């Protein structure tokens, strides 16, 4: 069941679709008619479910039934997906490949986002083939299989220092300083992903718990952003500041971009780790969710994700909870809810 839409929300979606058609025209000019929709999952607080949502939106697209893909994507074909781990905590990478395999990757010196950022930040035209950094066939579907059409750009723990590199780095020949902030510092990830956008229909970027340069790069590179939140007062309190800051970024980048930048749209706010009683959120959390709806209207997802041990158990085994749905219990319920969230996401971004 999808969220009910108000007239104001429909108007917002119409305006967003018009802006999206402009942004996607850039991709069509360079890559033909393929559309790549890029989404960042952001919140400056930890533990709100950013990685969980990123991971399950991406893997869920391959696990949708063909008839559901036909209905919501216009084709039964499984879309190509790129998962981008933009966080030094590396949780998305570990979820995809497992902690043991991730340690082996680091020991072998596998190229990561840390290396890409360095090369693209320091060079106008880096001699870098981004495809060489993408890991294919490593995202685990279950204990013995991997996803065929989901790829990964892995993180590195040293990404924690990359924000500092952005802050202190300055190009001696920077020409844009006369007209505004150093815009090249916000465009790095966009330049990285531009090389491979023709390969994918969807990209999902897992962001660090901050609004610093790595997250700003993700927002700049994205068509959409999503905010997961816990249904408690401390988590919900900062949401307005995130929305306001992204709106501010959009204004800055629009002014500095001479009309070439297209605003990144808020898809919505997803309540996570909701506790239920009689199939409804418990009273204290229901009050918070209702308060969010009063403030943000239909920007709050109709569907939410409940708490339970299904997702932690699946992540411990380096597989999405969809793969444990047959075990029943919270895994089955969380699978159902995540599929509803995915369908609602697709409905919200549909043109």
Automatic annotation (TrEMBL):
Superkingdom, taxonomy of origin: Bacteria
Any matching Pfam family: AAA_31
Residue stretches making up the AAA domain: 38-250
Protein name as annotated: Transcriptional regulator of ParA family, inhibits the initiation of sporulation
Protein's organism: Syntrophothermus lipocalidus (strain DSM 12680 / TGB-C1)
């Amino acid at each position: 069941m999808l969220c009910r839409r108000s007239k104001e929300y429909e108007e917002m979606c119409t305006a967003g679709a018009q802006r999206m058609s402009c942004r996607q025209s850039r991709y069509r000019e360079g890559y033909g008619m393929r559309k790549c929709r890029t989404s960042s999952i952001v919140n400056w607080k930890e533990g709100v479910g950013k990685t969980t949502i990123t991971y399950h939106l991406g893997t869920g697209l391959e696990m949708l039934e063909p008839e559901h893909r036909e209905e919501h994507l216009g084709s039964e074909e499984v879309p190509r997906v790129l998962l981008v781990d933009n966080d030094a905590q590396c949780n998305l990478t570990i979820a995809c490949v497992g902690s043991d395999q991730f340690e082996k990757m680091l020991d072998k010196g596998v190229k990561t986002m840390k290396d890409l950022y360095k090369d693209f930040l320091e060079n106008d035209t880096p001699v870098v083939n981004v495809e060489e950094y993408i890991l294919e066939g490593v995202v685990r579907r279950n204990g013995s299989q991997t996803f065929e059409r989901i790829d990964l750009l892995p993180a590195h723990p040293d990404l924690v220092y990359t924000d500092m590199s952005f802050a202190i780095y300055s190009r001696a020949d920077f020409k844009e300083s006369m007209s505004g902030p150093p815009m090249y510092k916000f465009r790095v990830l966009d330049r990285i992903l531009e090389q491979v956008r023709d390969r994918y229909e969807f990209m999902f970027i897992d962001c660090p718990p901050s609004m610093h340069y790595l997250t700003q790069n993700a927002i700049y590179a994205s068509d959409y952003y999503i905010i997961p939140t816990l249904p408690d007062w401390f988590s919900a309190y900062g949401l307005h500041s995130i929305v306001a800051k992204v709106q501010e970024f959009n204004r800055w980048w629009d002014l500095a971009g001479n009309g070439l930048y297209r605003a990144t749209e808020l898809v919505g706010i997803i309540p996570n780790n909701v506790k239920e009683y009689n199939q409804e959120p418990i009273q204290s959390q229901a009050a918070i969710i209702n308060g969010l709806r009063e403030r943000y209207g239909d920007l709050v997802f109709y569907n939410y994700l409940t708490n339970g041990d299904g997702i932690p158990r699946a992540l411990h085994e380096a597989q999405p909870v969809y793969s444990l749905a047959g075990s029943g219990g919270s895994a089955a319920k969380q699978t159902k809810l995540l599929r509803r969230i995915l369908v609602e996401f697709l409905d919200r971004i549909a043109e």
